[in-house]
Write a structure and sequence with these properties.
Helix content: 40-55%
Radius of gyration: 17 Å
Shape: globular
CATH architecture: 3-Layer(aba) Sandwich
CATH topology: Glycerol-3-phosphate (1)-acyltransferase
Order of helices and strands: HHEEHEHEHEHEHEEH
Largest sheet: 8 strands, mixed
Oligomer: single chain
Length: about 260
């Protein structure tokens, strides 16, 4: 219990600090703003006791923008993606109205997308493409919602259209948790998910960087989405992450997919 409470208090202090100082982010240069958000994500993961390991080499924005795309199982995925690479994030527009979290995400340069209104999708795709051209690095989760990890949802092609328009590289990123209790799916609540996470002795997340794809060399956004999904699924099969021997061995049964996602 002391470990759980300590982790929660540390995380809460960081989030409140981020809220207080978030207005300062908008006056920073783009590079410094992204670097500050990256540091914040790393500190938050550390405060929650989550050990982050990166395997492989991520493509870095340079002459060509990079769209980082990952599988989606938990709210932790968002922090992990930002922690491994300074980037803007694509998130559902509903999060913008959340107290504390919404203002921080907005100040950090989040690109909002309303997936429930198809009429707004073309404009949202163009915003993501513009963010790629300007910032050079954007991350998103094309499944659109969280899945338990054993199952994965189809990759929706909209975000890949933005990569095609911006002539970007697509960097597939496979996210693997050593313990299934970190999943945030089904009728789960964020509070319950956070409590399970801080209750784990050694929650561990491995980020696998896969060979990037060039959007300018793929015939369509659908083909790009399929190729990315296949690459991530293959990496997850070939590089299973084992639960450490010191961690609890009883794993919570997988929940059905489809919970409301933070991204």
């Amino acid at each position: 219990m002391p470990r759980r409470i300590g982790r929660l208090l540390a995380a809460l202090l960081l989030i409140l600090s981020g809220f207080v100082f978030s207005p300062l982010l908008v006056v920073l240069s783009r590079r410094r703003r992204l670097a500050a958000v990256r540091i914040g994500a790393r500190l938050l993961l550390h405060s929650l006791g989550i050990a982050l390991t990166i395997r492989g080499r991520l493509a870095r924005p340079g002459g060509q923008a990079v769209l980082y795309v990952g599988n989606h199982t938990s709210w932790i995925d968002i922090l992990a993606m930002i922690a491994v690479q300074p980037c803007r994030h694509v998130a559902k527009s509903g999060v913008r109205g959340w107290p504390v979290i919404g203002p921080i995400a907005t100040a950090a340069g989040t690109v909002w997308m309303d997936r429930d209104k198809l009429s707004t999708l073309p404009a949202a795709v163009e915003r993501v493409a513009r963010a790629l051209r300007i910032s050079g690095a954007v991350a998103g989760f094309p499944e659109g919602t969280t899945w338990c990890g054993r199952e994965r949802g189809p990759f929706k092609p909209a975000i890949f259209e933005a990569a095609v328009r911006a002539g970007a590289l697509v960097q597939p990123v496979a996210l693997q948790f050593a313990d299934g209790r970190t999943a945030f799916v089904g009728d789960d609540t964020l509070v319950a998910s956070v409590w399970r996470t801080v209750s784990l002795r050694r929650p561990r997340l491995v980020v696998l960087a896969i060979t990037p794809l060039d959007a300018t060399q793929v015939r369509s956004r659908g083909a790009l989405a399929d190729a990315t999904a296949t690459a991530i699924a293959g990496a997850l099969r070939e590089s299973p992450v084992r639960t450490p021997a010191t961690a609890p061995t009883r794993v919570r049964p997988a929940l059905p997919a489809g919970s409301p996602s933070l991204a």
